[in-house]
Amino acid sequence: MIALFAGFLTVSLSSCRDQKPQEETLEESLIDDMQDKGADIKVKDDGDKIKMETEDEKVKIKTDDDGNVKIKVKDKE
């Protein structure tokens, strides 16, 4: 009985370990990239509007009420 329980426990723990991490969305990758560049980041409306700015570029991410995401990337010249 103990061996059977140990076998089920081992299988359940190893199956959790095999899961691949979720792929990063475009928004998440842009945010990570801008953070790495040291951007000023402003978040409004509980994350519905995100503005990030470095010396070289501006990025705006806006989520509307339907869940649609708009991304604007502008290079400063």
Task: Please summarize what this structure is.
By secondary structure, the protein is of the alpha+beta class. It contains two helices and four strands; from the N terminus they run ααββββ. A four-stranded antiparallel β-sheet has the order 1-2-3-4, covered by helices on one side.
Structure characterization notes:
- With 77 residues, the protein is of the alpha+beta class.
- It has a domain of 53 residues.
- The chain contains 2 helices and 4 strands; from the N terminus they run H-H-E-E-E-E.
Topology of this structure?
Elements: H1 2-17, H2 26-36, E1 40-44, E2 49-53, E3 57-63, E4 69-75
The number of helices is: 2
Which percent bin holds the helix content? 25-40%
Number of strands: 4
Task: Name the strands of the widest sheet in spatial order.
Answer: 1-2-3-4
Radius of gyration: 21 Å
Strand content: 25-35%
Largest sheet: 4 strands, antiparallel
Query: What is the H/E order?
Result: HHEEEE
Task: Name the average pLDDT.
Answer: 82
How would you describe this structure in keywords?
77 residues, four-stranded antiparallel beta sheet, alpha+beta, 31% strand, 35% helix, 4 strands
